Amino acid sequence: MPGGYVGKFLRVNLSSGNIKNEKIPEETLRAFIGGRGLGVKILYDELKPGIDPLSPENKIVILTGPVTGTPAPECGRWCSVTKSPLTGTIHDSHSGGDFGPYMKFAGVDGVIFEEASKKPVYLWIEDGRAELKDASNLWGKDVFRTTDEIIKGDKNTRVACIGPAGENLVKFANIINEKYRAAGRGGHGAVLGSKKVKAIAVRGDKHPPVADGDALKKANEAVVKKIHEMSTTNDSLPKLGTAVLVNVINEDGGYPTKNFQTGVFATADRTSGEMLRDTLLTDTMACWGCIIKCGRVTKVPPWSAYSGEGEGPEYETIWSMGAQCGVDNLEAITKANYICNELGLDSIEMGNLIGLSMELYEKGYIEPELTRGLDLTFGNPQALVELTWRTALRSGLGDDIAEGGVSFSTKYKAPELFMGARGQGFPAYDPRAFQGHALGFATSNRGGCHLRGYMIAAEAVGEVCGQKIELDPLATEGKAKWLKIFQDLYSACDSLIICKFNTFAVGAEEFASTLSAVTGWKYTPDDIMNIGDRIYNLERAFNVRERKGLEKDTLPKRFLEDPLPEGPRKGQVVKLDQMLGEYYNLRGWKEGVPTKAKLKELGLNQAAEDVGV
Amino acid sequence: MFIRVRFFGDLRRYINKRWMVVEVPQGSLLLDFIFNMANKVDSSILDKLMEKNEVRSGIRILVNGRNINYLNRLNTKLSDGDLITIMPIAGGG
After folding, report:
1. pLDDT tens digits, A403-428
2. How far apart are CA A117 and CA A151, in angstroms?
3. pLDDT given for residue B44 in this prediction
4. Chain B contact for A505, CB < 8 A?
5. Which fold has domain A9-203?
6. Please, are residues A132 and A121 in contact by the beta-carbon 8 Å criterion?
7. What are phi and psi of A453, to 5 degrees?
8. Considering just the CA atoms, what is the radius of gyration of chain B in Å?
9. What is the DSSP-derived secondary structure letter of residue A467?
10. CA quadruple A475, A249, A566, B11: dihedral, nearest 10
């Protein structure tokens, strides 16, 4: 038995109520590790193309990795893998907090949910056993109350749940654990909602076995040393959280403002990490097993119109509810962030779409009567809170927004104004300001995403895997090569599962020593990158098999044709055609589709047969 | 000539300012500017910005929004009205 895994994957049939222990073959674990990789493999094998993601035919897999819950630094994460109702692609969504390790402590590596329950249920896992409990008194309740009522003050219990947004099948509803940590993107909360699964509760304190404790200790010491050497992980993230990026990206001229119409937000500083620390921050917070401690605990004072308390906002939410909407009221942004958590919907998508609705409104595509009195011009902080509630409850315009950006913008006759890819909204980086990151946006298998290949680490930060690596954000040369490295590394990172912030300080070498020490299986850095390549290709194969068009890697016209109008990156457009050809060559793909040879090389024989060109 | 400078991150707390305008002689380089500014504020901030005649690791400097590593680093020649941004090396999500 390899170390790290506790050896139990549960398959829960929600229709029959049957729960059984699933044996995952060792060669599958070796080839895909866990987390994202394992989830993608399971769903490639088990889902037929063309199913409705919100039907009982979809499956959703809640997973940890072998490293989760061990003494390795930053191993406190878990993920959910499913076919997304927002993008129609294979989709993994990740979260921090405590839930991942506690799932392991409760004696389970992962859970596969299939079919749908007729009545609301929640899954209770303890001592390696699970049971489906009645959730009818929890259905309809918000995330905070649901969490409290299941935990009932027990210190060894943790809960991941959906809120009203998930129950109402909002296409970007999320799964929230510990009240403020989100498996945010892609609408996984809606998938659970469609299955009438309100929550997963885990209770336990048994730590997973590790194959070689001494080797792990040595690997951990090396990782901790590197984390303390890099400014990102040792300095700026602990001090100011991810919000430190507000000024950094704005000063670079790539801070998307008013639905990506420009890259400079004049009053960004009012919503910066510095401002957050000086006004609303009350404490910092770390996920389980983390020494970086980037989390923010905040409070908006009782005399404010936007009073409340909780965790966040993070950089992405500050942007999505801030510059994206032209709003520079940090208190309103923070309140909107709390409400997204309470109702269980993705703050990135929500903010992106509020910004979209503002551009639609200002340009006359949305008639004023439709907003029921809400002034939807850019800069109105009232819009943040009101539209978030409306969307979660599918009320008025919120019902249209809840369907996602493609549907929403198409309904109002301006599909070209949705800033996203494959149906998922772009996050807080204007691609025209960062060519490599733009290529990442276009080629992401799960739609608009900055984390598939965080090229910003090289193009705006300068710390990559423990080295001072800087790439010129304006250049296109060499970007394809670097993006493939990032994408493969992060695919592996998401499967161990280790927090990506480690990758400012460490890389494949440290992942290999950590994974080898934990499992007892021998991994080299090349193995790690190879596994990442395999996962990325299998995701692409899933999408290609799913539907024609999902292989198309492109960006909205705004980024390809409309130059940034002002700031340090004035005049820039994304030069996608200068990078895409080289990217496909390096990947072994033709026009976005993996070749048979490439898939066979990665051991993906079924995929080679299904989709290989 | 007049050069504008903006501070971000922890430097703000240390210098107690968000921005300054500094007058420097024509033809000044970035390095000259830094010494000039340190003189006006507090010479110990030199230590925060520099280490052994190089920009301190953890600090990122832009001139008119462009990273100095793509210009002439500390020898970048300044012009009247230029904006210098001094910020922390920072990454995130």
Report:
1. 999 999 999 999 999 999 999 999 99
2. 22
3. 83
4. no
5. Aldehyde Ferredoxin Oxidoreductase;  A, domain 1 (3.60.9)
6. yes
7. -145, 90
8. 12
9. B
10. -120
> Residue A67, CB half-sphere, CA atoms under 13 Å: how many?
29
- If you write DSSP's letter for every residue of A483-498 in order, what string do you get? HHHHHHHHHHHHHHT-
* Interchain pair A245, B87: CB under 8 A: no
Strands A78-83, A60-63: pairing is antiparallel
Give CA–CA dist A61/A83, Å, rounded: 10
Is the domain defined by A431-611 classed in CATH 1.10.599.10?
yes
Query: Which residues of chain A are within 8 Å of residue B4 when distances are taken between CB atoms?
Result: none
Give the distance from residue B91's alpha carbon to the nearest chain A alpha carbon, in angstroms.
Answer: 6
The correct answer on CATH 1.10.569.10 for the domain covering A246-425 is yes
pLDDT score of B15? 84
Burial annotation A236-265 (CB, 10 A radius, 16+ → b, else e): bbbbbbbbbbbbbbbbbbbbbbbbbbbbbb
Q: How many beta-carbon contacts under 8 Å exist across A and B?
A: 92
- Residue B43: the pLDDT is 82
Backbone φ and ψ for A168, nearest 5 degrees, come out as: -90, 10
Percent of chain B with pLDDT over 90: 70
Both tokens assigned to A26: 């060792």
Architecture of domain B2-83: Roll (3.10)
Flag whether pLDDT at B45 surpasses 90.
Answer: no
Residue pair A274/B12 in contact (Cβ under 8 Å)? The answer is yes
